[in-house]
UniProtKB/TrEMBL annotation:
Binds 1 Fe cation per subunit. This is Pirin. Pfam families: Pirin, Pirin_C. Its cofactor is Fe cation. GO terms for molecular function: metal ion binding. It comes from the Eukaryota. Belongs to the pirin family. SUPFAM superfamilies: RmlC-like cupins. Residues 177-284 form the Pirin C-terminal domain. Keywords: Iron, Metal-binding. Fe cation binds at residues 56, 58, 100, 102. Residues 22-120 form the Pirin N-terminal domain.
């Protein structure tokens, strides 16, 4: 018999400045939610040119970018370049070192570019793997409708109601589901036992949990589930005027120390200091950064 996960906490992600003129709502990686392995950071970003995220380094983590509106270009010092649009995702493994830029499109209607970026820790044995990218297009994502079509689920990574995602996209096991619930709809989503899980709300008013342990929140809240249990429950009241829309994310906790300094995420202070030295001296993974400048970031970083 399934056991519903209780709600550990729920809190509003407050908007703040980040990068070069971007606005983000950060919920993971703040005083309200740290050490939630394997998750390091979650940003809900809103950005328009000339703002953006020009040339910057990473080491030791993976980033998952899910674009909701607009377009974002990326470019790195290994020659990788591309664009993601609405509903597309990019999975980037920094590994031993990468320098890249992420810059928003200038949309014809003047609208901003909106999306989510999740940082996921890498297992210690993979901290110094070769960097890599994987793009996942909206058209490639399987989906399913449940509860008499009142619940629509995009299975980006993982499984839902008998539907499997296209492929493994991150080294650290992560499930990522985009869930939309119409008024009167309800869903029970199975999650791997022992994994940490949260829901981040994008619009509408949604009730999470079951029985006496229910929490109702509006947009831009992070709802953190207890680790015990194998089902996450969510519903939208019949009298609501708007659908409830959220992402549901679960990941395998990593039993390791996390030492983070900005874009470097390692397992000891010495490794972080070494990352800083390697980046500054263009060595041990950062060799190609010596004379590299992205084309897409030049207008902002000048």
């Amino acid at each position: 018999m399934s056991v519903s996960r209780a709600i550990r906490k729920a809190f509003l992600a407050v908007e703040q400045s980040e990068g070069m003129g971007a606005r983000v709502r950060r919920s993971i990686g703040t005083a309200k939610l740290r050490n939630f392995s394997p998750f390091l950071m979650l940003d809900h970003f809103t950005v328009s040119p000339p703002a953006g995220f020009p040339d910057h380094p990473h080491r030791g983590q993976e980033t998952i970018t899910y674009l909701l509106k607009g377009g974002v270009d990326h470019e790195d010092f290994a020659g990788n370049a591309g664009t993601i649009g609405p509903g597309d995702l990019q999975f980037m493994t920094a590994g031993k070192g990468i320098m890249h830029a992420e810059m928003p499109h200038k949309n014809a209607d003047g609208s901003p570019n909106v999306g989510l970026q999740l940082w996921v820790d890498l297992p210690e044995k993979l901290k110094f793997c070769e960097p890599r990218y994987r793009d996942l297009r909206a058209s490639e994502i399987p989906n399913i409708d449940v509860d008499d079509d009142k619940v629509h689920i995009k299975v980006i990574s993982g499984q839902s109601h008998g539907v499997d995602s296209v492929k493994e996209l991150a080294y650290t096991p992560v499930w990522l589901l985009d869930v939309n619930i119409k008024p009167g709809g309800r869903v029970q989503q199975e999650l791997p036992v022992g994994w940490n899980a949260f829901a981040y709300t994008l619009s509408g008013t949604t009730t999470f949990g079951s029985g006496k342990d229910q929490t109702t929140v509006g947009p831009y809240h992070n709802v953190v589930f207890e680790q015990a249990g194998d089902v996450a429950e969510a519903q939208v009241a019949k009298d609501e005027k708007e659908d409830g829309h959220f992402i549901l994310v679960a990941g395998l906790p990593l039993d390791q120390k996390v030492v983070q300094y900005g874009p470097f995420v390692l397992n000891s202070e010495d490794q972080v200091y070494q990352a800083m030295r390697d980046f500054q001296s263009h060595s041990n993974g950062f060799e190609r950064g010596k004379d590299w400048r992205s084309e897409i970031g030049k207008g902002v970083s000048d």
